[in-house]
Amino acid sequence: MIPKEARAEARELRELIRYHNRLYYSEDRTEISDSEYDALMRRLMELENRWPGLITEDSPTHRVGAEPLEYFQSIEWDPPMLSLDNVFSEERFREWEERAVRELGLECPPDYSVEPKLDGLAVALVYRDGVLERAGTRGDGAEGEDVTPNIRTVRSIPLVLEGAVPGVLVVRGEVIFRRDDFREMNRRREAGGLEPFVNPRNAASGSLRQLDSRITSERPLSFVAYGTAEWPPDVSDMHSLFGLLGSLGLPVNPWNRTCTGCEQVCAAYRRLEDAREELPWDIDGVVVKMERADLQERMGTISRSPRWAVAWKFRAEEAVTRLLGIDLQVGRTGKLTPVARLEPVFVGGVTVSSATLHNADELERKDARPGDMVVVRRAGDVIPEVVRSLGNPGGDRSEPFRFPGSCPVCGGPVVREESEAAHRCMNPACPARLSESLFHWGSRDALDIEGLGSKLADQLVDSGLVKGFPDLYRLTEVELAKLPRMGAKSAENLVRQLKQSTGADLRRFLTGLGIPGIGRTAAGSLAERFEDLGSLMEAGVDSLTSVEGVGPVLAGSLHRFFHDPVTRDVVEGLVEAGFDPKGSGPSRNGSLSGLTLVFTGSISIPRDRARQLAEDAGAKVTGSVSPATDLVVAGPGGGSKLDRARELGIRVIGEEEFLSMV
Ligand SMILES: [Zn+2]
């Protein structure tokens, strides 16, 4: 029996959350902080966990959680989702407009709806009796992919429309990334060592077409509605259609305008082109539609395009120039990015003299070589990129660019991990990546130096106090206490923690070095196999390859790491600072020896601590339940993993029992 108060509170929370979602996504403003919003969401989840009967199909908490799909179902569009004809100049637009006026036999200039043309992925949302039922991509117009679970994770899309909407309403619009969301997402990806997305459009398309909606849910996508498949009753022009969509809780573009006649449309086009850089999303032109429903119907469609609308694209943002050379930039994580040095060229409103070539794969695909003529694109505030090479008309071409074997900044060894596009500098003490390396060195899985956060790491490097790892171990309390926001007490603690860290075992030591491909798992296997650092450093490629989880490529790069003078020097410096890391020996025959274990739900000790306990007891910890799972440790709110475990008849235990076993 669910208490009446809980029911009322859940209803109120849902309304509040929807209200704030709408404010944020439709009106671009907020009344509460992120943490207040999270608190509302958390409280609702608590109630729903406690009384699952409270969960409704449309609950804002229920946007995520579907299991990955095997493939996309198809979804049919009738009437089909048409694509617009493009015009690329004012002259062509005027021709289109004149023809329309002539054909319709109008005596005075008609009204047009002028809308920013968002550069994203077109989708349609099917609402039945006001509830989101299905959603899909445009596909070929007649048939798209059913991406309903992914669409449900887009927070600006209401799962339930506001007000009564009987029957079926098919809403069309664009799924996009706002620029600020896109930048923030890329910043986080890079901080996590992931490849950043190239541009918002590709990222939006890639994010929405994920078979696992949990991935989509982590991407901050937005939605903007631009129409409906059929005219709703009592709506006779675009302006009132947008009014209706907005009142139903669907985001519409605040820049949409009704214009009378050709001159007003041209003025609106120029205004948007001028404002383009300041808009919150990328646009590549304007869409001009007949404002009135009856005129749209009279003009009709031909083949795949409506005749009552046209996409008027902005001036090309591409230009051709000569590629003078290719430089390499080393990023904070050690990633080497090839950058094109260009003969300066005016494109997209600014002079561009360098452009990114992204990575080795892209460079090879485009086959851009120094001396070639190349096409450069600059769209929105995305960094300029080289789109393709035109070769060197009338001249000989130079050799294709080769990535060097050593880092242009520090001379350390460069590797390209298996299945990775990026080349990375392996030297943790490389000046380009030193502050990230120090932060990683202090992280919990590595040397676990609590005081060594990312801010302090930056300060240590910027102040020149630390130029390499051994410098960390020469720091004095007096030196540290001079840094901004560092008290005597913290300085004392840090020096003590650093000193303690020199007693770390081989696993932590290896994890801390941040060698590409060596995370805590591989480091653990190496620490089991090798007695101490010395024997690991002298090991041949064959004996490294015999370690579980270390393939020939990884073995090769490890071997290189320990033999290249630059990186070997870093390790030897640490040994001089007092490190003498020992291996753990073959894993003990613990109480959970040989078992594969999965955690789910919330448990009272930190998850990584629980994981450590399980591993120390000999278990292998994995993230998802499969027939290979032996044991599931479940806390409250276990969800789909728990269901799956029960389905497969896998033994499920609680936290207390788990703790008694380790
Ligand atoms: Zn380097």
Main traits of this protein?
alpha+beta; single chain; 662 residues; globular; 5 domains; D-amino Acid Aminotransferase, Chain A, domain 1; 20% strand; seven-stranded antiparallel beta sheet; binds zinc ion; 25 helices; Helix Hairpins; OB fold (Dihydrolipoamide Acetyltransferase, E2P); five-stranded mixed beta sheet
Brief sketch in words of this structure:
The chain is of the alpha+beta class and 662 residues long.
3D structure, described in words:
This protein is an alpha+beta fold and 662 residues long. The protein folds into five domains: 4-63, Helix hairpin bin (Helix Hairpins), CATH 1.10.287; 86-313, D-amino Acid Aminotransferase, Chain A, domain 1 (2-Layer Sandwich); 318-389, OB fold (Dihydrolipoamide Acetyltransferase, E2P), CATH 2.40.50; 414-576, DNA polymerase, domain 1 (Orthogonal Bundle), CATH 1.10.150; 596-661, Rossmann fold, CATH 3.40.50. 37% of the residues lie in helices and 20% in strands. It contains 25 helices and 24 strands. The strands form six sheets. Strands 14, 15, 16, 17, 18, 19 and 20 form a seven-stranded antiparallel beta sheet that branches. A five-stranded mixed beta sheet has the order 2-13-10-3-9. Strands 5-4-7-8 form a four-stranded antiparallel beta sheet. Strand 17 and strand 18 (385-389) form a beta hairpin. Helix 1 (4-26) packs antiparallel against helix 2 (34-50). The longest helix is centred in the N-terminal third of the chain and has 23 residues, at 4-26. The protein is globular and about 90 Å long. The model has no long low-confidence stretch (mean pLDDT 89). The chain binds zinc ion (ZN). The site of zinc ion has 9 residues, from loops. Residues 330, 407, 409-410, 412, 425, 427, 430, 432 line the site of zinc ion.
